[in-house]
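Reviewer 2 asked us to include a model.

Predict the structure of this chain.
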Amino acid sequence: MTTNEPVLMGPAMTLPQALSLRAEKQPDDTAYVYLRDGEEPDGSLTYRQLDVDARSRAAALAAAGLGGGSAVLLYPSGLEFVRTLLGCMYARVSGAPVQVPRRATGLARLRRIADDAGTTTVLTTAEVKRDLEERFGDRTELAGLTLVDTGALPRAEWTGGFPEPEDTALLQYTSGSTGDPKGVMVTHANFLANVAETDELWPSGPDGVVVSWLPLFHDMGMLFGVLMPLCEGMPAYLMAPDAFVRSPGRWLAAIDRFRGTHAAAPSFAYELCVKAEQEGKVAPGLDLSSWRVAANGAEPVRWQAVRSFAEAFAPAGFRPEAMCPGYGLAENTLKATGSRPAEEPALLWVSTDALRAGRVTVSAPGADAQPLVGSGVPVLGTTVRIVDPASRTALADREVGEIWVSGPCVAAGYHGRPQESEETFRASIDGQEEAGTFLRTGDLGFVHDGELFVTGRLKDVIIRQGRNFYPQDIELSAETAAPGLHPNAAAAFSVDDGERERLVIVVEADGRALRTTGPDELTARIRAAVHEGQRLDVDEVVIVRRGFLPRTTSGKVQRRACRNRYLNGELKHASAAERSA
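Predicted model (structure tokens):
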């Protein structure tokens, strides 16, 4: 095996075996580098160092009686997470990665996940342990939990073997954008199948380099930042999400400096990069010509984000065909479809009115049409079908229905939830039972010329006069209504007031917009923009300050949680705050 050669992903392979092979064949090659503040290298691991550390962690965990059990992984982005993650996998400990809590709501999520995973053990760093004990030591959520500083575990020799391919490698808790987090049981076989499919679409090549700011506790950050580089033999340069959010240009500068070839992010991250470039906050002279795969994992991907990023960074050598939209979810390990890097993203203009009626009518660009970006195609063993969610019958091309997925990447189910697992992971198409079982994604979309187009979430669709309105379209109109409004900073939903369904949209605005434009004028502009873009009247606009909208661990706005806060009177209206200030 040579550098950047994928490991043999046979049916008997597991992730610890992949690491062991790397340590044997490429012991001194760099595996991971952590970038302090997203800029300067601050620690690195070779494959040999990582394997030694992971085996030592495994021995200590087994000695503590955790082997074959579960544990919460509570780490900031960094190398200790990588060491412990692989150590857990060696010891057959089902790790459940969780975001480090900053507020009481995050602490409550930590406890819910620990309880659901059936563990009282929280593996973490000395700094996080000290901070939690100082800030939340008297909270009931921490009662009974044992916080373990894995950096202080005694060095030990691992004498155990490798896990089995069908063993649970990870409990990946869903981000909770549509409900309570559920632990997806992802096996080693699932992970390696997803890596194989990712490599089929986006091959690493001999010079492959990953640069990632994505949170490592999230499925996209986990696979793209840790496990794919390991299996592909690509060095990975990692930075903290906060470093990117504070200065999106750091991500681009790191891709330039370390000649990154593969980097992934949700659509809003590319929009933030464009905004930073427009504001002169991106270093001049960038060279992004090495970037071959810019995976875009939003549902759906916005054409404006794709086009504006390609145009903004064309002078830096970014090629439009490098933008690779994809579709995935934790229940399928991650990726289900993806666009090939040799082709520009598929663009389809469709009739807005027809789409709202559940039909797809290809149209020329114009006022009555909207652009949809394709999310690529499935490869290898994955199959995608579009199904009527009520009748469970298969739909034809260009008919909107629920996206169903089958293949080796579909996870084993939800931990401790057999009924939900049966309903979600083992659905069958009426009249086509011979096709086997499918994962119900809860997402809506259609297929055109073999390409998947995602249109929204099944439970988020807003119905007005028999027509379907997708909340992300309404939110996009609102977010572009005035300066000082930002991408991924609005939530549209409907509420029943006892007489009729009312459309409510909650929009974040920064302090400058509130001072210069004013909440009343912002409200008027949002109403006008939604009416113009969607031919839809908004019943109520709620302006809130930046950071007020509830979000998932991956940064997506939680529409349902926002709706609940609205109904409970928990949303602090910025206009009222401004007037009383």
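Confidence is low (pLDDT under 50) at residues 576-581. The chain has 18 helices and 25 strands. We have added this to the supplementary material.
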